[in-house]
Amino acid sequence: MSIARVHGDAAGFGVGLAALCDFAIATPEAKFSFPEVEIGLAPVLVLAWLPQLVGRRQAMRLTATGASVDAGEAVALGLVTQVAEAGELDTQITALADGLRKRSPRVLAEIRDFLRVTDQATETQATEMARSRLVVGSLRRGRD
């Protein structure tokens, strides 16, 4: 599992790093932007994944305008998991990491993999994959 710690501004690739982590915790002062348009570049690498995360219209708004969003809006858009005050940032990250360490690494890997393979699937396809994986997961359950 990966956890991003965002304390300050994240731009372009920095937003991508935070957004593509399994979890991202930011301070209220953090700002997120895609400024490539300001220097005459289309952020095509970002556009490979951003629409699936925030929706097509929001991806257009963020990349075409270079607009900066605060941490609260970043949570609402799905770029960040949660906001924590600067003095609590490390405590929140440690608590999250400690909680994850208590979980089965196999189960966490299955969750991450399922989210990845169903990202572009229809609801019907995802449900069918879930049924198949539920059986296999139940059989593996006693091995942890």
Automatic annotation (TrEMBL):
Principal EC category: lyase
Gene3D superfamilies cross-referenced by the UniProt entry: 2-enoyl-CoA Hydratase, Chain A, domain 1
Enzyme Commission (EC) number: 4.-.-.-
Alphabetical keyword list: Lyase
Pfam families linked to this entry: ECH_1
GO molecular-function terms, A-Z: lyase activity
Family: Belongs to the enoyl-CoA hydratase/isomerase family.
Name under which the protein is recorded: Enoyl-CoA hydratase/isomerase
